[in-house]
Model the fold of this input.
Amino acid sequence: MTLILDVVSGAFMILGSLLALTAAVGIVRFKDTLSRMHAATKPQVVGLILVLTGAVIQLHGNVDIWMLVLVGLFTVLTAPVIAHMVGRVAYREQGTTDARLVVNEMAEDQE
Amino acid sequence: MTVVAIIAGTMLILAAALTCYRILAGPNSLDRLVAIDTAMAVAMCGLAVWAAASKDTTVVPAIVALSLVGFLGSASVARFRVGDDQ
Done:
Protein backbone atom coordinates (compact mmCIF):
# COMPACT_ATOMS: atom_id res chain seq x y z
CA MET A 1 0.00 0.00 0.00
CA THR A 2 2.78 2.40 0.89
CA LEU A 3 4.55 1.54 -2.35
CA ILE A 4 1.44 2.28 -4.39
CA LEU A 5 1.00 5.64 -2.66
CA ASP A 6 4.68 6.42 -3.24
CA VAL A 7 4.40 5.66 -6.94
CA VAL A 8 1.19 7.67 -7.36
CA SER A 9 2.49 10.72 -5.50
CA GLY A 10 5.83 10.52 -7.31
CA ALA A 11 4.04 10.45 -10.66
CA PHE A 12 1.96 13.47 -9.65
CA MET A 13 5.03 15.42 -8.57
CA ILE A 14 7.09 14.63 -11.66
CA LEU A 15 4.16 15.52 -13.93
CA GLY A 16 3.65 18.80 -12.05
CA SER A 17 7.33 19.70 -12.29
CA LEU A 18 7.25 18.90 -16.00
CA LEU A 19 4.32 21.30 -16.41
CA ALA A 20 6.23 23.99 -14.49
CA LEU A 21 9.16 23.46 -16.87
CA THR A 22 6.76 23.73 -19.82
CA ALA A 23 5.48 27.04 -18.48
CA ALA A 24 9.04 28.35 -18.15
CA VAL A 25 9.89 27.29 -21.72
CA GLY A 26 6.74 29.03 -22.93
CA ILE A 27 7.64 32.21 -21.07
CA VAL A 28 11.04 32.27 -22.73
CA ARG A 29 9.89 31.41 -26.26
CA PHE A 30 6.55 33.20 -26.76
CA LYS A 31 6.58 36.56 -28.49
CA ASP A 32 4.35 39.03 -26.66
CA THR A 33 3.07 39.59 -23.15
CA LEU A 34 -0.37 38.09 -23.71
CA SER A 35 1.08 34.84 -25.07
CA ARG A 36 3.56 34.69 -22.21
CA MET A 37 0.70 35.19 -19.78
CA HIS A 38 -1.06 32.22 -21.35
CA ALA A 39 2.01 30.09 -20.61
CA ALA A 40 2.40 31.54 -17.14
CA THR A 41 -1.13 30.91 -15.90
CA LYS A 42 -2.51 27.65 -17.20
CA PRO A 43 0.34 25.09 -17.07
CA GLN A 44 1.67 26.81 -13.99
CA VAL A 45 -1.54 26.46 -11.98
CA VAL A 46 -2.13 22.87 -13.08
CA GLY A 47 1.49 22.00 -12.33
CA LEU A 48 1.34 23.54 -8.87
CA ILE A 49 -1.90 21.71 -8.08
CA LEU A 50 -0.42 18.40 -9.28
CA VAL A 51 2.68 18.89 -7.11
CA LEU A 52 0.50 19.80 -4.12
CA THR A 53 -1.64 16.69 -4.73
CA GLY A 54 1.51 14.57 -4.74
CA ALA A 55 2.68 16.18 -1.52
CA VAL A 56 -0.72 15.64 0.13
CA ILE A 57 -0.67 11.95 -0.84
CA GLN A 58 2.89 11.62 0.42
CA LEU A 59 2.17 13.36 3.73
CA HIS A 60 -1.12 11.54 4.39
CA GLY A 61 -2.03 11.43 8.06
CA ASN A 62 -0.17 14.62 8.86
CA VAL A 63 -2.03 17.48 10.54
CA ASP A 64 -0.59 20.17 8.25
CA ILE A 65 -2.25 18.88 5.08
CA TRP A 66 -5.10 21.39 5.25
CA MET A 67 -2.60 24.17 4.55
CA LEU A 68 -1.61 22.52 1.26
CA VAL A 69 -5.29 22.19 0.31
CA LEU A 70 -5.72 25.87 1.21
CA VAL A 71 -2.81 26.81 -1.06
CA GLY A 72 -4.37 24.90 -3.97
CA LEU A 73 -7.74 26.58 -3.41
CA PHE A 74 -6.14 30.00 -3.12
CA THR A 75 -4.12 29.52 -6.30
CA VAL A 76 -7.24 28.57 -8.24
CA LEU A 77 -8.99 31.67 -6.89
CA THR A 78 -6.20 34.21 -7.42
CA ALA A 79 -4.61 33.15 -10.73
CA PRO A 80 -7.61 34.35 -12.84
CA VAL A 81 -7.61 37.70 -11.01
CA ILE A 82 -3.93 38.29 -11.74
CA ALA A 83 -4.34 37.14 -15.34
CA HIS A 84 -7.30 39.47 -15.78
CA MET A 85 -5.47 42.52 -14.43
CA VAL A 86 -2.23 41.88 -16.32
CA GLY A 87 -4.13 41.09 -19.50
CA ARG A 88 -6.07 44.36 -19.38
CA VAL A 89 -2.94 46.43 -18.81
CA ALA A 90 -1.05 44.56 -21.53
CA TYR A 91 -3.85 45.04 -24.05
CA ARG A 92 -4.16 48.76 -23.28
CA GLU A 93 -0.44 49.39 -23.66
CA GLN A 94 0.59 47.11 -26.45
CA GLY A 95 -2.62 46.30 -28.26
CA THR A 96 -2.56 43.08 -30.21
CA THR A 97 -2.80 42.00 -33.79
CA ASP A 98 -6.57 41.86 -34.13
CA ALA A 99 -6.48 39.22 -36.88
CA ARG A 100 -5.37 36.61 -34.37
CA LEU A 101 -8.33 37.19 -32.05
CA VAL A 102 -11.64 35.40 -32.53
CA VAL A 103 -13.56 37.70 -30.18
CA ASN A 104 -12.32 41.16 -29.25
CA GLU A 105 -14.66 42.83 -26.81
CA MET A 106 -12.19 45.44 -25.64
CA ALA A 107 -11.90 47.06 -29.06
CA GLU A 108 -15.48 48.31 -28.66
CA ASP A 109 -14.64 49.82 -25.28
CA GLN A 110 -11.71 51.74 -26.65
CA GLU A 111 -13.50 53.47 -29.49
CA MET B 1 11.15 9.04 -3.06
CA THR B 2 14.65 10.47 -3.24
CA VAL B 3 14.78 9.74 -6.97
CA VAL B 4 11.47 11.53 -7.49
CA ALA B 5 12.72 14.52 -5.51
CA ILE B 6 15.93 14.68 -7.56
CA ILE B 7 14.09 14.48 -10.90
CA ALA B 8 11.43 17.01 -9.90
CA GLY B 9 14.03 19.29 -8.34
CA THR B 10 16.16 19.25 -11.49
CA MET B 11 13.18 20.18 -13.66
CA LEU B 12 12.15 22.94 -11.23
CA ILE B 13 15.69 24.37 -11.13
CA LEU B 14 15.73 24.39 -14.94
CA ALA B 15 12.35 26.14 -14.93
CA ALA B 16 13.61 28.72 -12.44
CA ALA B 17 16.69 29.39 -14.57
CA LEU B 18 14.59 29.89 -17.72
CA THR B 19 12.26 32.21 -15.79
CA CYS B 20 15.25 34.20 -14.54
CA TYR B 21 16.26 34.78 -18.15
CA ARG B 22 12.86 36.31 -18.86
CA ILE B 23 13.02 38.42 -15.68
CA LEU B 24 16.37 39.83 -16.81
CA ALA B 25 15.61 40.18 -20.53
CA GLY B 26 11.86 40.97 -20.52
CA PRO B 27 11.23 43.96 -22.79
CA ASN B 28 8.88 45.67 -20.33
CA SER B 29 7.82 45.39 -16.73
CA LEU B 30 4.68 43.35 -17.50
CA ASP B 31 6.83 40.53 -18.89
CA ARG B 32 8.92 40.72 -15.74
CA LEU B 33 5.77 40.62 -13.62
CA VAL B 34 4.51 37.50 -15.40
CA ALA B 35 7.94 35.89 -15.05
CA ILE B 36 8.16 36.73 -11.35
CA ASP B 37 4.71 35.23 -10.84
CA THR B 38 5.95 32.03 -12.48
CA ALA B 39 9.10 32.07 -10.37
CA MET B 40 6.93 32.33 -7.27
CA ALA B 41 4.88 29.30 -8.34
CA VAL B 42 8.08 27.37 -9.09
CA ALA B 43 9.33 28.19 -5.60
CA MET B 44 6.04 26.93 -4.14
CA CYS B 45 6.41 23.70 -6.15
CA GLY B 46 9.96 23.29 -4.87
CA LEU B 47 8.92 23.74 -1.26
CA ALA B 48 6.08 21.23 -1.69
CA VAL B 49 8.48 18.69 -3.23
CA TRP B 50 10.89 19.27 -0.36
CA ALA B 51 8.11 18.80 2.23
CA ALA B 52 7.02 15.56 0.56
CA ALA B 53 10.55 14.22 0.15
CA SER B 54 11.66 14.92 3.71
CA LYS B 55 8.25 14.17 5.33
CA ASP B 56 8.83 17.41 7.22
CA THR B 57 5.99 19.93 7.23
CA THR B 58 7.97 22.84 8.66
CA VAL B 59 8.01 24.60 5.28
CA VAL B 60 4.27 24.24 4.62
CA PRO B 61 3.33 27.61 6.24
CA ALA B 62 5.97 29.17 3.99
CA ILE B 63 4.05 27.88 0.94
CA VAL B 64 0.88 29.55 2.25
CA ALA B 65 2.78 32.80 2.87
CA LEU B 66 4.33 32.69 -0.63
CA SER B 67 0.94 32.25 -2.28
CA LEU B 68 -0.58 35.17 -0.31
CA VAL B 69 2.36 37.53 -0.81
CA GLY B 70 2.65 36.58 -4.49
CA PHE B 71 -0.98 37.49 -5.09
CA LEU B 72 -0.67 40.81 -3.26
CA GLY B 73 2.54 41.72 -5.08
CA SER B 74 1.29 40.86 -8.56
CA ALA B 75 -2.06 42.58 -8.04
CA SER B 76 -0.51 45.80 -6.76
CA VAL B 77 2.14 45.94 -9.48
CA ALA B 78 -0.49 45.39 -12.18
CA ARG B 79 -2.73 48.04 -10.64
CA PHE B 80 -0.29 50.79 -9.62
CA ARG B 81 2.69 50.50 -11.93
CA VAL B 82 3.79 53.34 -14.17
CA GLY B 83 4.40 52.67 -17.86
CA ASP B 84 7.95 52.07 -18.98
CA ASP B 85 8.17 55.07 -21.29
CA GLN B 86 7.46 57.64 -18.58
Observations:
- The interface with chain B takes residues 6, 9-10, 13-14, 16-18, 20-21, 23-25, 27-28, 33, 36-37, 40, 44-45, 47-48, 51-52, 54-55, 58-59, 62, 64, 67-68, 70-71, 74-75, 78, 81-82, 85-86, 89-90, 93 of chain A (CB under 8 Å).
- Chain A has four helices and no strands.
